[in-house]
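Lab channel / #folding
Pinned by the channel admin:
"Please post every new chain as: sequence first, then the structure tokens as a reply. Keep commentary short and put observations after the output so the thread stays searchable."

First post following the new format, from NK:
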Amino acid sequence: MKCEKCGVETYIPFECPYCGGRFCSVHRLPEKHDCPGVEAVRASRFVQPEPMTPASTYEYKVTFGGYPPRVNRVFFSMKEVGHLLVAGVLVLCVGFSIFWYEGYSLENSWTLLTLLSLLLTISFLTHEVAHKIVAQRKGLWAEFRLTLWGVALTLFSVISPLKIVSPGAVMISGYAQKSDIGRISIAGPATNLLFAFLFIGASVLFPYYVDIFLWVAYINALIATLNLIPFSILDGHKIFDWNKKLWGISFAVSIVLTAAMLFTV
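Reply from TO:
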């Protein structure tokens, strides 16, 4: 996204709470971009602001603080679409490699292999887009970006029996309350749990594809479980910090579901 003042490309834009514009770090202050609400800024400086606590979300920063969020429509930039396409191809390749390491013949299992890979890719992308949609609905800047280490680990997973699918993540910037960050974080794992139950149901309705659907259900349950671990940059840490009861229920459901699916696939 380009700064509305100088036109410089910036990946972490600062949104002005007075005019709604997005600017680079140099022009983020109202005085620096000729903000029409600069008088309101000067007046507000006589009021003691609420303390603000920085909180890490993935590789970027979100600040809990005093400005009300501006609800925006869901928007995908062309750059983000490109990153999502590359991520989708990488996850698709990991999906194809799973059957290969399981000893299946590509020639004899082409349809099943393609279906498995597509469902895995949809599961991953939907998880990330769920974060994005909730964040943008809260008025935050949120776009998916590939990360160097994530791409490297995902590529390694294609040729390795160890599967790590994490080519990138949704980057978030703006002012948000703790409850907003909690809701944004729970959106991803909740999507995976929903997918897990849907694919379990699909395995009953379509017995010919039972192995594929149970595999995808297991992987979705596993993704939810790993993301709900209350540690560091994972979703679970932010959910635990916001609502411990909701985190406990979600984590317990994901663990039980993952364990049950592990003995099924």
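NK: The beta strands are 14-15, 22-23, 53-57, 60-64, 141-146, 168-175.
TO: also worth noting, Residues 78-262 form one domain.
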